[in-house]
Amino acid sequence: MTTDYLYHPFSSQRNTVFAKRGMVATSQPLAAQAGLEILQQGGNAIDAAIATAAALTVVEPTSNGIGGDAFALVWTKNKLHGLNASGPVPQFISIEEMKKRGYEKMPVFGVEPITVPGVPAAWAELSEKHGKLPFEKLMAPAIRLAEEGYPVSPILGKYWKGAAEKFKEIFKDDVYQSWFDTFTPEGRAPEIGEMWSSKGHAETLKSIADSNGESFYKGELADKIDAYMKEHGGYLSKEDLAAFKPEWVEPVSVNYRGYDVWEIPPNGQGMIALMALNIAQGFEFDEFQSTETYHKQIESMKLAFTDGKAFITEPEDMPISTEELLSKEYADKRRAVIDEKAMDPEPMELPKGGTVYLAAADDEGNMISYIQSNYMGFGSGVVVPETGISLQNRGHDFSLDAEHPNALKPGKRTYHTIIPGFLTKDGEAVGPFGVMGGYMQPQGHFQVAVNTIDFHLNPQAALDAPRWQWMHGKTVHVEPHFPNHLAQALVRKGHTIQVTTDGGSFGRGQIIWRDPETGVLKGGTESRTDGQIAAW
Question: What does the record list as coiled-coil region(s) (predicted)?
Answer without folding.
Answer: none
